[in-house]
Amino acid sequence: MNCPYLQNMDQQSTLDTQRLEVSLGPQHPSTHGVFQMDVVLDGEQVIRLKPVMGYLHRNHEKLMENMSWLACMPYTDRLDYFCALANNFSYALAVEKLAGIEVPERAQYLRVIMAELTRLINHIVLVGFLLNDLGAFFTPVLYAFREREKLLDLFEDVTGSRMMCNYFRFGGVKRDVPPDFILRVREIVNQFPKFLDELEELLTHNEILLSRCQNVGILPKALAVNAGITGPVLRASGIPYDIRKIDKYSIYGRFKFRVPVGEAGDVYDRYYVRILEMRESLQILEQAINEIPDGEVISKAGAQAAKMPRTLKVPKGDAYGRTEAPKGELGFYLVSDGSGKPYRYHVRAPSFINLTVLEDMCIGQKVADVIIILGSIDIVLGEVDR
Amino acid sequence: MKTIEEIKQAIETKFGVQISIENNSLLIPKEKWPEIASFLKTDPEYSFDYLSSVTGTDYKDYLEVVYHLYSMGRECGPLVIKIRTDRNAAQIPSVVSIWRSAEFQEREAYDLLGIHFEGHPDLRRIFMWEGFVGHPLRKDYVTEDQDRKI
């Protein structure tokens, strides 16, 4: 055995340590759903960890092969159920790419506004739950949920649903926003930074948070790239890779925003990158509500397809559409055989692939740190298991 | 980024294989895939260091595995690679040793489509349970009838 801690023990004392196999989850609040980790412990240290998933598997991809293209849209809400609109966005982009459908200006702006509001929701909830995992039970979550509630009210008024929004259509969005929408988004843009300042005052330099999170669960740059890690987890390791900047999909090329990166790639950086990303999202929102034009919210071809979904014929071929979802690169690989249904529908789920390095980050850490490392990756089991 | 034609030419001259282009993707013979993969990753002219997506499709006559490669350093992509294999003895060399991101995705393709990735360090089912028979994403998989009377 190569564990230095154990060798020391052998020389100094007669105490024996025994390896202990613990199954964390699947029924445990810290796993954020039904997710299991088989951990081998040496004292308090983790020496092996195997993620076990599939408890929420419903073969999403097979189900979609029997649906019309548009009927898949509400199901994408259920992948990452915190960020329904971000999922809609990615799926709509992939189908539009395949079918060659144009999107009018106003709809582009509405899509970006919705996607950035979703990012705020995701990150604020993640920060709340991360603190929960650290042992600050439910006070931060409560404040996070208070803010989230304001955004969800907005979603309800626009889409008719708080979480399962089903708002995007091919070639635009389902319907135009209510007249006071821009005003309310502006209110959020003005209010939210104050809330963030308040939150940061309590957390960012908090001694307990620093000592629990710094130098815990370090993810080196090279491994992060090699393992296909995306989103805030990758950027916390110091790589400024943001698909909104790289692909400039939709109209992201028009907005000025920065890509925050971390240095150490530890849990603390992953927390702080998300705080900074929320501030950048607010920048995008402000620019978007200032520039949004009047006009149609769905193109003619799109409106036709939304009314009569089975008439939408997608040409033969395959396409891959990807967006920067709050958790990382969300991609849809679609194959069409020319009929009204997808021949093959594949989701490249960011939180599923980000779990690849969970073991690497946890080895050598304490068992209590495994919980916050998992929390800092930000997984949603609806998306991991599909 | 180099055009797909140029990449095709470069691989053909270096490895002496026949590659065809289909719908903007490279159709590569599976025998040389690990060598071509590590060439695409390490050669400074391409440096596709980021394997975004690995998945498969059942085309009834054959199975096809699709790789989407990007380069984080050069900020370009995607390069789409397709490899075909026989349906009954579906075997393709694994690329986990080149790109770790293939680890779970190859397991997923094995689980749902029954493609064996040779050289994968831990090829087990990932979503379905051990002992499950069949591969649900194959087109000839018979879905259980939900309405049947027991």
TrEMBL record, chain B:
Q: How the protein sits in the membrane?
A: Peripheral membrane protein
- As recorded in UniProt, its EC number(s) are 7.1.1.-
Gene3D superfamilies cross-referenced by the UniProt entry: NADH:ubiquinone oxidoreductase, 30kDa subunit (3.30.460.80)
Report keywords, A-Z.
Cell membrane, Membrane, NAD, Quinone, Translocase, Transport, Ubiquinone
Subcellular location per UniProt equals: Cell membrane
Q: Which GO terms describe its cellular component?
A: plasma membrane
Can you state the subunit structure given in the record? Answer: NDH-1 is composed of 14 different subunits. Subunits NuoB, C, D, E, F, and G constitute the peripheral sector of the complex.
The free-text function statement in the UniProt record for this protein reads: NDH-1 shuttles electrons from NADH, via FMN and iron-sulfur (Fe-S) centers, to quinones in the respiratory chain. The immediate electron acceptor for the enzyme in this species is believed to be ubiquinone. Couples the redox reaction to proton translocation (for every two electrons transferred, four hydrogen ions are translocated across the cytoplasmic membrane), and thus conserves the redox energy in a proton gradient.
**Similarity comment:** Belongs to the complex I 30 kDa subunit family.
This chain belongs to the protein called: NADH-quinone oxidoreductase subunit C
Task: Give the gene name.
Answer: nuoC
